[in-house]
Amino acid sequence: MSPDVAPVEGEEMSLENKRILVVEDEFLLARELTKILESAGALVVGPIPSAARAMARLREETVDAAVLDINVRGEDVERLADALKEHAVPMIFATGYEDHHVRRNHPDAPCLPKPVDLEKLVTLLGEALG
């Protein structure tokens, strides 16, 4: 992934002013996710490197969608994913885990393997928020 992310063609409007929660503990990926989402017009909430901190943030503000790593600093995002689902917030998993109980418990959430295809991520978010 390049440090300078170009805007994704045709997707600028789909994420315009949408609040996207990013939960990721890998600094470089978190930075790339933030850049690509902002270039598509999103307002990034985070990135947050902890599931517990993300849960606390959700109690303070609402989000339109979320991008979640499944395992952040040794803790899984199960409770966070459950809370998002309960509030009908679309989520996408961006993870290196192919088979994990969080994915099995949330089969409707798309999952992108790492390294994340950033253009596909923006497309999936646009479709989810359509």
Could you characterize what this model shows?
By secondary structure, the chain is α/β, with parallel strands linked by helices. It has a single domain (19-129), classed as Rossmann fold (3-Layer(aba) Sandwich), CATH 3.40.50. 38% of the residues lie in helices and 21% in strands. It contains five helices and seven strands, in the order E-H-E-H-E-E-E-H-E-H-E-H. It has a five-stranded parallel β-sheet with strand order 2-1-3-6-7, with helices on both faces. A two-stranded antiparallel sheet has the order 4-5. A hairpin with a 2-residue loop joins strand 4 (71-72) and strand 5 (75-76). The longest helix has 13 residues, at 27-39. It is globular.
The name of the CATH topology is Rossmann fold
Q: What CATH first level would be assigned?
A: Alpha Beta
Helix content, binned percent: 25-40%
Beginning-to-end CA distance, first to last residue: 27 Å
Overall body shape: globular
Q: What key attributes describe this structure?
A:
single chain; 130 residues; alpha/beta; five-stranded parallel beta sheet; two-stranded antiparallel ribbon; 5 helices; 7 strands; disordered N terminus
Task: Summarize the topology.
Blueprint: E1 19-23, H1 27-39, E2 43-48, H2 51-60, E3 65-68, E4 71-72, E5 75-76, H3 78-86, E6 91-95, H4 101-105, E7 111-113, H5 118-129
Parallel strand pairs: 1-2, 1-3, 3-6, 6-7
Antiparallel strand pairs: 4-5
Short description:
This protein is 38% helix and 21% strand. The chain is α/β, with parallel strands linked by helices.
